[in-house]
Design brief:
- By secondary structure, the protein is an alpha/beta fold.
- It is about 45% helix and about 30% strand.
- The chain is built from six helices and five strands.
- The protein has a five-stranded mixed beta sheet with strand order 1-2-3-4-5.
- The chain is globular.
Length: about 140
Amino acid sequence: MMPITSEWVIEGLLLEQTYVGDISLEELVEETGVATAALDSARGQHMYILVDNSRTTSSPDNLKELRQILPPVLRHPKLAMIVVSGQNNPLLRFVEQTIAAMFGIPLWFVATRADALRYLAMTDRHIAALLEDAS
């Protein structure tokens, strides 16, 4: 399995990124390109990203390096919010909160993917309707 995978939960509206194992800075740079392309192709005014960190064992946590590679995503005009599930590393959580705050991006942490989908459904009626139709 690839360390980072991306797939649409709802095409053009909700992208899920799954992180598995040890994530390198190079892999994060590559995934930033994938997320930026997804944001560029979003079908509406905004898009959400769901990050599943439940199986991440390590990830880059150097604030300076992350501030250099993440702006294409975090400054993207279509990015509405990032919801992170399964983040148990307090240092990485702090770094993620700090970076999101620097760019003014709403960032929400939840325990599970199901919690993330419930939160997003409460946040956006389009997501709620589409997830309801899918079940």
